[in-house]
Amino acid sequence: MINLRSATSADLDLLRHWDEQPHVIASDPNDDWNWEVELEQTPDWREQLIAEIDDRPIGFIQIIDPAREESHYWGDVAENLRAIDIWIGKEADLGKGYGTKMMQLALARCFAEPSVAAVIIDPLANNTRAHRFYERLGFQFVEYRRFGEDECFIYRLNRLDWQNKSPANHSSS
């Protein structure tokens, strides 16, 4: 069973280590997360979470309100959206269904807020494995967009589409 907990400054070394892993770099090559600063800040528009199995950290999830996020990374976006970043820390933990369960838990968190209309994500345009992953979860391609040096595909999962998936796909257990 996967559990999500808040990331803290005690996770600094772990997150730095994960950031150095080739599969993590490949999915997010141009971002500096500035963990030393970000882990100390807890704005009400963001959650930074560590996914664990039996107290063993396996991945990271960030959920933001893109309309309120300080850097305006997403530009002008509608209210009542959430955006998710997710990764598995160790390559050995890939392909075991952990990412799917982590996303299901993250989506349940997002849609637990009744005003949230949809969730958006921005995998790299060349990351076809991520595209298939998000499409299996019900996300639909919206557009190509360039963020700085990164060419990305924007995907969106509307609340109604999420609700129409089987209940097991969005239980909060």
Automatic annotation (TrEMBL):
Coiled coil: none annotated. GO terms for molecular function: N-acyltransferase activity. It holds the Pfam family Acetyltransf_8. The keyword Transferase applies. One of its GO terms (biological process) is response to antibiotic. Keywords: Antibiotic resistance, Transferase. Residues 2-161 form the N-acetyltransferase domain. InterPro entries: Acyl_CoA_acyltransferase (IPR016181), GNAT_dom (IPR000182). The keyword Lipoprotein does not apply. This is Acetyltransferase. It comes from Nostoc piscinale CENA21.
